[in-house]
Amino acid sequence: MTRLPDRGVVDRAAPLKFTFDGRELTGFRGDTLASALLANGVHQVATSIKYARPRGIVAAGVEDPTALVQIEAPFPEPMLSATTVELYDGLVARGLSGQGRLATEPDPARYDAEHIHCDVLVVGAGPAGRAAAAEASGRVLLVDDQPEPSGEIPGGVRFLSRTTAFGVYDDGFVLALERRGENAAPERISRRRVWRIRAKRIVLATGAHERPVVFPDNDRPGIMLAGAARTYLNRYGVLAGQRAVVFTTNDSAYAVAFDLADAGARIAVIADARDTVSARLREDAAARGIEIRTGHGIVGTAGGDRVTSAVVAELGATQGDRFACDLLLVSGGWNPAVHLFSQARGTLRYAPELGAYVPDGDLPTVRVVGSAAGEGLPEVKVLWQVPAAESEVDTRFVDLQRDATVSDVLRATGAGLRSLEHVKRYTTIGTAHDQGKTSGLLAAGITAEALGRDLAEQRPTTFRPPYTSVPFAALAGRNRGDLHDPVRVTALHPWHVAHGAEFENVGQWKRPWYYPRPGEDLETAVLRECRAARTGVALMDGSTLGKIDVQGPDAAAFLDLLYTNLMSSLKVGRIRYGVMCGVDGMVIDDGTVIRVAEDRFLVTTTTGNAAMVLEWMEEWLQTEWPHLRVFATSVTEHWATIPLVGPRSRAVLAKVAPGLDVSNDAFGFMTWQDAEVAGIDARVCRISFSGELAYEINVPSWHGITLWEALLAAGAEDGITPYGTETMHVLRAEKGYPIIGQETDATVTPQDLGMSWAVSKKKPDFLGKRSFTRAENLRPDRKQLVGLLPQDPAVLLPEGSQLIETDHVPEPPVRMLGHVTSSYRSAALGRTFALALVRSGRERVGQTLYVPVGAAVVPVTVTESVLFDKEGTRRDG
Amino acid sequence: MQLIPCPWCGPREETEFHYGGQAHVAYPQDPAALSDEDWAKFVFFRANPSGPLPERWTHSAGCRRWFNAVRDTRTHDLLAVYRLDEPRPVIP
Ligand SMILES: [Zn+2]
């Protein structure tokens, strides 16, 4: 039995059952999974990822590189370190070879986040951290990753246990992960919590990690950092072995050897790499009957699932004396845990007496204290590896988790890599779960030796967050599923849901995509909806259209600068289509502009660009044209917008708006009127995105459903049909109307779209104007918007397909002439068609081009972009 | 996460802000009078120093106002924040 009755602080009154690799075991409250395994005599925890060698427990904290486990119950969680998993009743775990398994079922636990401000944040509740917290004034927050502090927390200090500060960012922003209730009822308590801390000042008391020394076969279970064995003994009451060999470069391992000896273990020998050892340590060792061999190291070990012997040899020799043991304790010195300091952009300095990097002075707001600053750490004989001959298979492991050896490092330097960053990437050392906490400095030291360089001249690799691994679930917190991103729905949404609409996500909006009838798929539903719009009457929910109210004495002048065409000449009561470009002349949005009054316009934008266009307006108003007296206000949600479309739309509107003269003479195309529609004050616009006679009826959004249902009732005898975005897209594509963002990609000018008519020649300037005369924009071989008719009218081209000139795909490089931007089946045309951006497209009208689709090459005829009702006779009914 | 001191709202987290490129690159008085080269310089060319750079920022999730900031591109430190109608401060 390795659990001693008189040692440790675990709660022996609280035994816990757990399962590891199928074995039922017990531990105590206060154990980690690692300490409980050792208490049960389990040393081999995992196998290594590349060579499948048995691997055990090296450390007692976050620096452990080998004891990787998968938790299976209560909820699957991969890639955890057994040294950081608190034991609880019912825990089921198994060892991993470096790869875990994500849960396939949703996690029932909650994860949350809390924001907190403090004057001083102290990281680490050891003696140095507690002293710093006691001295600090104001709001003091102390965090520590252990369940219990090792001493009394000063009064007035807020203390968070089980909380690991894992990232330090700008301006005192620190992220910490609190492990709250690993197995608690998820409805009562969140499982993990991310603390988002903003601190005026930070004190890092993060301690130090012991580092190993590399020697052949240094990876067997039972080979452990010396300090870890002391922690297992004094904190968990676990004697990690009965007969130990100790290998050290410094004094600290002696205290471990003496503690273990006093607890009943046999210390076979202490191999000390140094030439001399102090008289006091010699006396203390002699008093316990412990042999010391100075100038010695380990040159080999034996054992399978646990170490059984170690060979102690004089440094430089490859042969020595073999000592039987079941525990091999190693101390290569101590690395101050400077990770968070380095993240805060603190500079590090090599301290040769420690063989480690220490903070090179404090930062203005970040101070490092205790052993994290190198204080109180033992001087060492710097030794990265024991000189030893190796046969062809190298077992001198530098990174135990990545199975990377000294030979791998030498291969990297031999290949000419000199910087640690490159060696790290070549060998993968330091990239595993432990992020190089035990291996990083060894790799640096061995690299420096190989290059004949001094570590003091070698820059350490930069430490980056996170200090320890953080589950994505914790980072996501509550922002999952419906809470991941806001969902925006229109006033008509409940009706769409009730009537079986399929939805399409457009930005954050849920838009009806199509309204399938029983037995219909997308294609048949859309053909039916299109036919209704072209032959009878149909309506859609256009409420997501971006709407911006632009007012002020200079509103007209402002819009003249923003749009490519003239807006100031627009009369009140009229509507004009407009295109907006960036200063580079490329189209960024389009929409209609309604003149509401002399000093007031209502501008519409594409659904996805509403926020962008408002910000674009604000930017120019504030930064370049602050003299213009204009306000721009988003009013998108204020209105429910319903396009009523089709040859019968006039008759339907007349029924619900008896006071409105809907004749073409009284209510012409591109005009608007305020009228009562279905008893509601409405603004009716005669605009058409389908090419059909159409009215866009706008009412305050809370009247949306009333209006919608009134229109449905009025159109019932005409077979009024609701249609979705897919039908809208087909109708507009038949008319060659581009959608900004689908036909365009920020490299397309209005001229490329065939919209020179929308670009003013009269205005002295507007955004983009000067760019239109740049040589690049005048090239005749620019990509231009055209239509495509596949020669087989049943073939539907995939959107995004490339166009080529030949009827077969030639040897690469293949000259591509452009790509398909939109492609649909058309009820009106009785065939498929597409829109495409094609080099010199307008010159190619009538030509045959080819579209590779899978293994086939589809011949297509280039046409003008307008494929239906070229004369535009239908819009007036 | 950086704190950006909005001249109107005070220090707020950087996620509330949008970057607007180099500051003090005024829209030309008469673009038509510029050569293609000079216009291209205005549209496409911006300074990229290793050190202080005056930039435009907007507090898009706050007061929605634009302002200028001098930021050290090596450290991200904001050396000065000032209103659009204020001259660029002299950074020692
Ligand atoms: Zn602000």
UniProtKB/TrEMBL annotation, chain A:
On whether Oxidoreductase is a keyword of this UniProt record, the answer is yes
The Gene Ontology terms for molecular function here are: oxidoreductase activity
Give start and end of each FAD/NAD(P)-binding domain. 119-344
Keyword Oxidoreductase in the entry? The reply is: yes
Q: What protein family is recorded?
A: Belongs to the GcvT family.
Q: Which InterPro entries match?
A: 2Fe-2S-bd_N, FAD/NAD-bd_sf, FAD/NAD-binding_dom, GcvT/YgfZ/DmdA, GcvT/YgfZ_C, GcvT_C, GCVT_N, SoxA_A3
Q: Which UniProt keywords apply?
A: Oxidoreductase
> Which species does the entry assign this protein to?
Amycolatopsis carbonis
Residues covered by the Aminomethyltransferase C-terminal domain: 783-869
GCVT N-terminal domain location is: 492-763
- Domain (SoxA A3): give its ranges: 395-478
How is this protein named in the record? 2Fe-2S iron-sulfur cluster-binding protein
Which SUPFAM superfamilies does its entry note?
Answer: Aminomethyltransferase beta-barrel domain, FAD/NAD(P)-binding domain, Folate-binding domain
From TrEMBL, chain B:
InterPro entries given in the database record: SoxD, SoxD_sf
Pfam family for this entry, one: SoxD
Coiled coil residues, start to end: none
One Gene Ontology MF term: sarcosine oxidase activity
Domain of life, per lineage: Bacteria
Any one GO BP annotation for this protein: tetrahydrofolate metabolic process
Q: What is this protein called?
A: Sarcosine oxidase subunit delta
Supply the source organism for this entry: Amycolatopsis carbonis
Organism classification: Bacteria, Bacillati, Actinomycetota, Actinomycetes, Pseudonocardiales
